[in-house]
């Protein structure tokens, strides 16, 4: 299903996070000498975008979606993902996560995003009226207004090298 324009800002942020997840996956196994640079990039991405993104979902989207009984178990699952991801982010910020755990973090974040896109967003679009989606979109725009509108540039350590 085509993404409703009112959910597109969240979907764009999902694309940014998926890009980071793909880069972590392709860079694995991450050398111990590069691990600090990867942790710094993940930490920066969360500070600049995903912290506000999670808050917008938790304060605007999820409460709205809870209005539909069939979505409550999915929302509970997504909130558990947020908690797990935040716990791992604390390790990333303290530079205490292993390369394997960072890869696991990327896989879990990727699966979480796909669950939101393929399950939550699809059902919200089917269940909500156009007017309700428009109101949700305005609320999300307000909640996301402080997200930095810049992209992360990989460092020498996190830039993927062309295959030889």
Overall geometry comes to: elongated
Sequence of secondary-structure elements: HHHHH
Strand content: under 5%
Oligomer: single chain
Runs with pLDDT <50, length 5+? none
SS summary, helix count = 5
Radius of gyration, Cα only, in angstroms? 17 Å
Derived structural class? mainly alpha
| Average pLDDT level | 93
> Helicity level, as a percent range?
over 70%
Task: Give a quick account of the main beta sheet: strands, pairing sense, barrel closure.
Answer: none
E-strand count: 0
The number of domains: 1
Structural key phrases:
single chain, mainly alpha, 5 helices, 164 residues
What does this structure look like?
The protein is mainly α. The chain has one domain (8-143). 73% of the residues lie in helices and 0% in strands. The chain is built from five helices and no strands. It has helices spanning 8-27, 32-65, 72-93, 99-127, 130-143. It starts with 7 loop residues before the first helix and ends in a 21-residue tail after the last helix. The mean pLDDT is 93.
Describe the SSE topology.
Layout: H1 8-27, H2 32-65, H3 72-93, H4 99-127, H5 130-143
Helix pairs in contact: 1-2, 1-4, 2-3, 2-4, 2-5, 3-4
Structure summarized in a few sentences:
The protein is mostly helical and 164 residues long.
């Amino acid at each position: 299903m085509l993404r409703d324009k009112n959910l597109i800002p969240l979907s764009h942020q999902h694309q940014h996070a998926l890009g980071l997840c793909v880069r972590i996956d392709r860079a694995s196994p991450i050398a111990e000498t590069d691990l600090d640079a990867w942790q710094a990039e993940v930490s920066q991405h969360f500070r600049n975008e995903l912290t506000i993104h999670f808050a917008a979902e938790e304060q605007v989207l999820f409460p709205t979606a809870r209005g539909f009984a069939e979505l409550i178990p999915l929302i509970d699952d997504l909130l558990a993902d947020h908690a797990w991801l935040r716990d791992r982010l604390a390790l990333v910020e303290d530079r205490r996560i292993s390369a394997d755990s960072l890869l696991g973090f990327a896989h879990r974040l990727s699966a979480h995003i796909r669950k939101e896109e393929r399950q939550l967003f699809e059902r919200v679009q089917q269940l909500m009226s156009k007017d309700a989606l428009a109101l949700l979109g305005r609320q999300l725009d307000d909640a996301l207004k402080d997200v930095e509108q810049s992209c992360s540039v990989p460092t020498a350590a996190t830039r993927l090298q062309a295959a030889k």
